[in-house]
Amino acid sequence: MYVFKKANKLLKEREKLINESEVHVVSFSWNGFTPVLKAFDGEEVREIDLGSIDLNISQEKTCVGSFDDDYTPCPKGRVVIKFNQCQECAPDSIPDLECIFEPQECEECEGGFCEEEHAVYLAFHGKYPKIGMTRKERLEERMIEQGADAYALMVTTEHRVDAREEEKGLSDRLGIPQKVGRKKKLKTFSRKIDKELIRRKYTGVDNRAPVGKLNFLNDYPISLPLRAEPRTRPTAGLHRGDMIGVKGKYLIYENSGLQALDLSDMPGRKMKLRE
Ligand SMILES: [Zn+2]
Ligand SMILES: [Zn+2]
Would you tell me which of 86, 166, 217, 257 could form a disulfide with 63, CB atoms 3.0–4.6 Å apart? Predict the structure, then answer.
């Protein structure tokens, strides 16, 4: 019996080894209310099944490559820190990657993404409001990506630089921050979303600044509120447990308590997974 058990155990371990593969995470995005994590396995880019969590994630990030026509891995495999791509692999529409965070002089951005129509918005994460900006075309996608519970369009602009200016101006004037930090966002996971409170706060803004219709985002694939506030785990390292759900950038799983993995921090990392 003992021998049999041992043999069985060895067999299982061998199976695990065979099914363990290493992939390079290349993107995290939302398709409506479905989170999509994609990785390059050496042959093709494929979607990673988020149903079971058994991942070993690298510390280092390397350029995710180029998606212009077909997928092309980074020819230099460059280490990246601030962005997911090196400048060589970035799309032609973003000649200066710095514009993603803070629009620059934008002399070369002509016809590129800085010159697309932008939107300044008001968003709510639970009771916490923020003012932000994004390309108008991506507004709802961006809100879902951030895990907002509600949002409203405030102003549109013709250029990313102007959107950033409007965002700062409105933030100062209304006393609403441009960011809701990690701790506050994670707090909202274990509290009931008070829609009445959000509506009241929205009305308060509506009386002082231009703001469009308030939209609620209710369809995240997670059952809220959670029984407790999740703890964030460093992205690098081992993540193993039972999947609870995803909202915004946080994947929540159960392993001796509720753990939060930041999926937006994954592109560029290598990941060993068992499947
Ligand atoms: Zn590259
Ligand atoms: Zn620019």
Answer: 86
